[in-house]
Specification:
Low-confidence stretches: none
Largest sheet: none
Number of helices: 6
Radius of gyration: 17 Å
Shape: globular
Distance between the termini: 36 Å
Strand content: under 5%
Structural class: mainly alpha
Helix content: 55-70%
Number of strands: 0
Mean pLDDT: 87
Length: 138
């Protein structure tokens, strides 16, 4: 049952990415171009996502346990380290250069969007390299 719920949620997320325009790198890059062809529409998408997540977390975490698991998987670390700063910074640079973040990139790949055949393998290689480096340091 858990697999079906996850599949349904993933499909809903993918449809939301397509409808919002997040699968279109030109729309994303226009959102980031403050002094050129700025398109503020993605700010409304992000604002809506923040509101839904805020309400959803409040409702779900009020429960004693999830519906399909024994306990919640909530992060417990509160420290700020170099990885916490460097990771989002690299993510932002990649998002700004490519116009994709991981979810929309996979969605756009399924739609045959141009650029994804380069971006997705490069993103996967970067993820693999980061994991290999972290394991080597440990």
């Amino acid at each position: 049952m858990s697999i079906l719920v996850n599949l349904g949620l993933g499909l809903l997320f993918g449809v939301g990415l397509i409808v919002s325009g997040m699968g279109n790198p030109a729309k994303v890059l226009n959102f980031l171009d403050l002094f050129g062809t700025f398109d503020p529409s993605l700010a409304f998408v992000m604002g809506g996502a923040v509101v839904v997540a805020f309400i959803g977390y409040r409702l779900v975490l009020a429960r004693p346990a999830p519906l399909l698991a024994e306990r919640f998987q909530v992060p417990t670390r509160t420290d700020i380290d170099v990885r916490l700063i460097l990771g989002p910074a690299l993510f932002g640079v990649g998002w700004g250069l490519g116009g994709f973040c991981p979810g929309p990139a996979f969605t756009a790949l399924g739609l045959g969007a141009p650029g994804t055949l380069v971006f997705v393998p490069a993103m996967l290689a970067g993820m693999w390299a980061a994991r290999a480096l972290a394991e080597r340091r440990a």
